[in-house]
Design goal:
about 180 residues; mainly alpha; Rna Polymerase Sigma Factor, Chain: A; Arc Repressor Mutant, subunit A; about 0% strand
Length: about 180
């Protein structure tokens, strides 16, 4: 995606937000744009379709109710939706530990060590993912589970694209070392 396409994406989104502040019927393009993405994010943490559906509905309801207070900061609206969704997940989880559901084939090409035979790859990857900080896990999630470009991740996380690349590649190397040790 080139710079002008990025700008157009943001200007469309910004217009949707401004229109939604005046009349909630204009919230539909935002909902259509982000629903599946936010649902997958929640589902990976709850591993329950009904719960994910409920929390996703709560997320969009809260976004719709609070859209008038939303201030544009030249970032995708999804950035704010992820924060709302994360809060919904935390409220739902309470004291229970949030889990992480993943599709092994989406990350196994980056970590060939997953092919090790003694312990199933899913268990090994789950162990490695548990060692990551919330920020590191978010980076891996955005790149390998959501399929975002480094450029989009840089906007979402508010860090430079080169920093995103560097952190991702260093993190992958560290994960590979952990995989070898398991």
């Amino acid at each position: 995606m080139n710079t002008s396409e990025k700008h157009n994406d943001f200007s469309d989104e910004r217009q949707w937000i401004e229109d939604s502040k005046k009349d909630i019927k204009y919230f539909e393009p935002i909902y259509e744009r982000y629903y599946n993405e936010i649902f997958r994010y929640i589902y990976r943490r709850t591993a329950n379709f009904s719960t994910a559906n409920e929390l996703c509905s709560n997320t969009f309801y809260k976004a719709l109710v609070r859209i008038k207070k939303f201030k544009w900061r030249n970032k995708p609206f999804g950035y704010w939706l992820y924060r709302v969704a994360t809060n919904e997940i935390r409220k739902h989880a309470g004291r229970r530990k949030v889990i992480f559901v993943f599709e092994l084939d989406r990350i196994s090409t980056e970590i060939p060590e997953l092919e090790h035979e003694s312990i199933p790859a899913e268990q090994r990857l789950q162990k490695v993912l548990k060692t990551l900080s919330a920020t590191e896990l978010r980076l891996i999630e955005l790149k390998y589970f959501e399929g975002y470009t480094f450029s989009k991740i840089s906007l979402l996380l508010d860090i430079s694209e080169s920093a995103v690349k560097m952190r991702t590649y260093r993190l992958l190397e560290r994960m590979k070392e952990h995989m070898k040790a398991i």
